[in-house]
Amino acid sequence: MEDGRETAAMREEERRKRQIDSELSSRNNKALEDTDSDIGLCGWVLVIFSILLTLLTLPLSIWMCIKIVKEYERAIIFRLGRILRGGAKGPGLFFILPCTDSFINVDMRTITFDIPPQEVLTKDSVTVSVDGVVYYRVQNATLAVANITNADAATRLLAQTTLRNVLGTKNLAEILSDREEIAHSMQSTLDDATDDWGIKVERVEIKDVKLPLQLQRAMAAEAEASREARAKVIAAEGEMNASRALKEASLVIAESPSALQLRYLQTLNTIAAEKNSTIIFPLPIDMMQSFLKH
């Protein structure tokens, strides 16, 4: 009962932490989207000057103001170093001021990368090399640009360390048999860690587990010995069943002497079908003794 209460309390505490983290993330997102209201008087002067310059240089300046982002992209616009109100723009057309605005394109498609083979020491002190593949996408373009320098590189490094940390708590048998559980644990860990970066980890898969050559030989020898042991047990059980069947057959034949003669004729028929040149006829010793006396 006490263990159940402790587990329930831990789950409730984790749920509260996740709720607090989500609230903080939403507040940070709103704060990032509403930053252009604090550009100051000098900033507004520069913005007005940029608008006047654009109007004076029409229609040439229109080509510098109109930008296009594709269906799978979003644009984060910076005005005097601050993110423009409204967050990411796109897809389609949007306008910028040539002197005060700059923008960064963010790809919203699912990105796939391979986790390089990691040398991991398992819980039972076995060194294995494990690699995998991660599928992720940018869920919030504003957070992916404002909260981290390089979201792709950070996710790759985090995936490598997470793989090593998760596999370090498993033994060799669990790594070889519970790949789906390990992948799910990695996905949840990566997804929680990259939530503040605006990244959603969709899927994690373990590709291959490479064992040392000596360990492969030892496991092969163990499997071969196990198969030989099972084969010997099966052969012994077959001999035992065959002996029981022969015993029952001998009891049946002993009850009827003609059955022995029929079995003898059947054996001769089997030998003749194989086209053998030599056939052995068993004769009773009593018949031979009369010839030996003469």
TL;DR?
The chain contains ten helices and eight strands.
Features:
single chain, 294 residues, alpha+beta, three-stranded antiparallel sheet
Write the layout of secondary structure elements.
Blueprint: H1 2-33, H2 40-56, H3 62-65, E1 66-69, E2 73-79, E3 82-83, E4 92-95, E5 101-107, E6 111-121, E7 127-138, H4 141-146, H5 151-167, H6 172-177, H7 179-193, E8 199-210, H8 213-255, H9 257-273, H10 285-293
Antiparallel strand pairs: 1-4, 2-3, 2-5, 6-7, 7-8
Helix pairs in contact: 5-7, 8-9
Number of strands: 8
> Low-confidence stretches at least 5 residues in length (pLDDT < 50)?
none
- Give the ordered list of helices and strands: HHHEEEEEEEHHHHEHHH
Provide the residue-averaged pLDDT. 79
Strand residues, percent: 15-25%
Count of helical regions: 10
Computed structural class: alpha+beta
Describe the global form. Answer: rod-shaped
Quaternary structure of the protein:
single chain
Largest sheet: number of strands, sense, barrel closure: 3 strands, antiparallel
The Rg value, from CA coordinates, equals: 41 Å
Q: Separation of termini?
A: 100 Å
Q: What proportion of the residues is helical, as a percent range?
A: 55-70%
* Strand order, largest beta sheet: 3-2-5
